[in-house]
């Protein structure tokens, strides 16, 4: 097959995260199986074992990317149209098959990133326009939580395939666990990750237990988080870390922690699981798909947002004093071993083959 993926960023972008890892692993896998593969995305871009087209900046790409597809990639058998809040609306400019890939439905995330009128308009496009424009196209969600979110905005369940991401298992030996409790947060530092909530919880828990909290990751909230953390004992805010540093942190950690409001799929939680490290995380869409509560980690719940810092602090204290935490890590590793990138590509290949064989669709 000739396959083109249209998405917001390349791995070369400083803001790249799990969505970019997913697309790259998918395209590398498909290319390795003999398919002719191309990526269209906003710059900057880097070299890959498949063709890459830079389609402009953050917003201009929504005009230029369709033009690239209609000219340079017009003979593609199927297009993967990645929705990163706003999709590329491929059914409006292409009758040939396409699949809409959704990492997560953004819901309240719009309000945390944009002014009120812009957030309301973007939310309306995602909530109302997207289901109508794509009503004859297949969707792929990366978790059951995302599939639920799509169903909530009117996408038919029978048109949604759930394909969970894979995870790499690093070669052993892994770093030994820290002698003292070590909790690691590994996220892009943006508002919906709620690192401020994590810091509040650590401030409460720290008085009742030893150990350190390490916050790793870059993003627009980095300066604010560093200022707040400076007044809280035993917190290190590292900023962006290399892959080697990430492996060392996750390997030594007693647990990876997450206070995110929602995710498509908890990639950092599975990266930790791949080195035998369980999770302590707020029960949230996407996160509850990555953590099996009581088996591979602990999901934290509270009756209200205001009670979450206390609930999370208690969960950290209980975790430190729970002798069963090692069994949580062993179960997390076992689950990670079952999440293969090869299986991920297998399932995608099957969906793309079915969609490509369906032929042209009527215009919406």
Structure commentary:
The protein is α/β, with parallel strands linked by helices and 364 residues long. It folds into 2 domains: 2-166 and 340-357, Glycogen Phosphorylase B (Rossmann fold, 3-Layer(aba) Sandwich), CATH 3.40.50.2000; 182-337, Glycogen Phosphorylase B (Rossmann fold), CATH 3.40.50.2000. The chain is built from 14 helices and 13 strands. It has helices at 18-32, 61-71, 90-93, 109-113, 116-133, 144-152, 195-205, 222-229, 243-252, 267-273, 287-290, 308-320, 325-337, 341-357, and strands at residues 2-7, 36-41, 51-54, 78-83, 98-102, 138-141, 160-162, 182-186, 212-216, 235-239, 255-258, 279-282, 297-300. It has a 7-stranded parallel beta sheet with strand order 3-2-1-4-5-6-7, with helices on both faces. Strands 10-9-8-11-12-13 form a 6-stranded parallel beta sheet, with helices on both faces. Strand 4 (78-83), helix 3 and strand 5 (98-102) form a beta-alpha-beta unit. Helix 10 crosses helix 13 (325-337).
């Amino acid at each position: 097959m000739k396959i083109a993926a249209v998405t917001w960023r390349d791995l070369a972008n400083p803001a790249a995260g799990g969505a970019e890892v997913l697309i790259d692993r998918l395209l590398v896998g498909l290319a390795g199986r003999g398919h002719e593969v191309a990526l269209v995305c906003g710059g900057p871009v880097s070299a890959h074992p498949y063709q890459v087209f830079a389609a402009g900046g953050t917003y201009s790409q929504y005009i230029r990317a369709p033009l690239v597809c209609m000219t340079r990639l017009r003979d593609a058998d199927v297009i993967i149209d990645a929705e990163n809040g706003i999709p590329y609306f491929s059914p409006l400019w292409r009758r040939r098959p396409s699949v809409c890939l959704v990492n997560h439905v953004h819901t309240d995330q719009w309000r945390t990133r944009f002014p009120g009128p812009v957030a309301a308009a973007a939310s309306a496009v995602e909530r109302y326009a997207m289901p109508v424009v794509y009503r004859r196209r297949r969707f792929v969600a990366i978790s059951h939580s995302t599939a639920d979110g799509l169903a909530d905005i009117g996408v038919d369940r029978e048109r949604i395939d759930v394909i969970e991401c894979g995870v790499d298992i690093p070669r052993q030996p892994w770093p030994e666990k820290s002698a003292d409790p070590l909790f690691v947060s590994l996220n892009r530092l943006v508002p919906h990750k709620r690192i401020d909530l994590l810091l509040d919880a650590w401030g409460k828990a720290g008085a009742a237990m030893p150990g350190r909290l390490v916050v790793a990751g870059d993003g627009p909230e980095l300066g604010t988080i560093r200022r707040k953390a400076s007044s809280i004992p035993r917190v290190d805010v590292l900023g962006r870390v290399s892959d080697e540093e990430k492996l060392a942190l996750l390997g030594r950690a007693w647990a990876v922690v997450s206070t995110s409001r929602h995710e498509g799929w908890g990639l950092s939680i599975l990266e930790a699981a791949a080195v035998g490290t369980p999770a302590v995380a707020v029960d949230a869409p996407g996160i509850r798909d990555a953590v099996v509560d009581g088996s591979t980690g602990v999901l934290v719940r509270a009756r209200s947002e205001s009670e979450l810092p206390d609930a999370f602090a208690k969960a950290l204290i209980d975790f430190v004093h729970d002798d069963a935490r090692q069994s949580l890590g062993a179960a997390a590793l076992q689950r990670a071993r079952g999440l293969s990138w090869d299986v991920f590509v297998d399932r995608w290949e099957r969906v793309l083959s079915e969609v490509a064989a369906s032929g042209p669709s009527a215009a919406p």
